[in-house]
Amino acid sequence: MTGHSFRRYRFTKRTHRNQDLGPFISHEMNRCIACYRCVRYYKDYADGTDLGVYGAHDNVYFGRPEDGVLESEFSGNLVEVCPTGVFTDKTHSERYNRKWDMQFAPSICQQCSIGCNISPGERYGELRRIENRYNGTVNRYFLCDRGRFGYGYVNLKDRPRQPVQRRGDDLIALNAEQAMQGAADILRQSKKAIGIGSPRASLESNFALRELVGAENFYTGIAKAEQETSADDADGAARRRYSYPGAARH
Prior knowledge:
single chain, alpha+beta, N-terminal domain of TfIIb, 4 domains, 7 helices, 26% helix, disordered C terminus, iron-sulfur, oxidoreductase, 2 iron, 2 sulfur cluster binding, NADH dehydrogenase (ubiquinone) activity
């Protein structure tokens, strides 16, 4: 045992109740050093209004007015912003391991067409965590919650590992060349083809599909309401990028 095993502090120590912030973020308020980084980030950059600081002087509490999921789509960045671990990745805690035991590699997020830079962490052949990787022209220091926490499907045991084709009630495994040839044959034989894109696919792949089936037969795979919301978010992000106090220093 190292260090001292007793304290000379004679008074009752203050403890705080932790909040339930949803399925992605754990809350451990007793680790807080009142640096205010979480509140400044959440209000100034993430445009969130449901996380704040309550109290006065040396008795303050950082959290929501009541238990519940954080409303901002960028709330997961609190995990990296907090220096003491008040906010931690709950999905990683389910299969926890030390950060230095993981192997990280640079990658690009596939959840949408923006292409945020990420650093996925692997342990024993299993994806354990995704962290943000700085890119000054794309995502800068932050990552949305879909990109940070939406990797669960990667570790599914029944996830398809190679192309398959349904023949009757059976699924026949194919190699990449057979799958490409089969898809080409179906397109040649069809009188009219409709292409459905995906926000997980690259811009080049979606454009190639659009050119193949024609603009009138192409669908982006994104609901109209979601497209309008994404456009509003992009406009808000652009305004924050050029009005944020730290933008001029980059």
